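Final report, Chapter 2: Outcomes

The project's central promise was a pipeline that accepts a single protein chain and returns its three-dimensional structure in a standardized token representation, suitable for archiving and comparison. That pipeline is now operational. To close this chapter, we reproduce one record exactly as it appears in the project archive, with the input sequence first and the structure output second.
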Amino acid sequence: MTTQLLVVRVDLLRDRRTYVATLKSWLSELAIDGARLATTGSLHLLVVAASSAQLSQLLAFFTERPIDTDAKGALCVDKFIDVLGQKTVDDPPALKGFLEMNFLNTAMLERMLVGEWRADKQWLDEALATPRTKAFLAWRAASKAQRSERRKKSAQEKHAAKQQKREAQEVAAAAAAKTLRDEAADDAGADHSDKGEEEEDGDEGTDDKQSVVRTESPATHHTGDEKQQPNKKADVSHKRSTPSPTPTPTPTLNAQHQQPKKNKKRRKAQRDRLQGSKQAKGQQK
């Protein structure tokens, strides 16, 4: 059976005891009798020597089964591991059983990993190049991009909502202004109509007064006497300004001609009475 060497970088051990216990159970289930968990500082490397089928199944367990705890303390799958390398070794390293090993520095780790366990130095250099595993850094970058996209989308939605609200307010303001203009125009038209009706009523009242004056003034004959014209105009103007409830009719032309005759008859009757009284006194004497 060909032996292969697998080196895996573990990102972070939140619950080291649970992690190690679960890893041991997996190795026992797969009948793998050669593994080391090497640690220096924050760098954790899992080194396993087994067949190709056993190593493939072990990597499948990492993607399918929980092995660590999350921030809430619940068991979770460790999806942040990096497979640094896998190769076939002709002289398998002496890795019997499972051990946890802590190294004071990377130099001691390199001497053991490359010199004793037949790993490539390039694998170690790749692990030391980043503070966290590449899987974790990629996930963090993707999460950051998603959060940024969500914030951008939320900002766009808020901006669109504000713009829609602003447009609705502008439409409402324009409609209100149009309504006010229409009401003002209607009020102005109503005032103009009322004023016109008042003027028409005033004209009708003047016409009625003039017709009343014409009806009440008696008809007179024109005698060519120019002195009668001013009196007539004065009477008409007086009637227009202060109409009399019982207008005095102006003497007609026939009445003016008959007046001297009556005076003559009256004076003649008076003379006759005087003569009669004188005759009576003379007879008494």
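Archive annotation: Strands lie at 4-10, 34-40, 43-50, 66-69, 75-77, 82-88, 97-102.
This record, like all others produced under the grant, will remain available to the consortium after the project formally closes.
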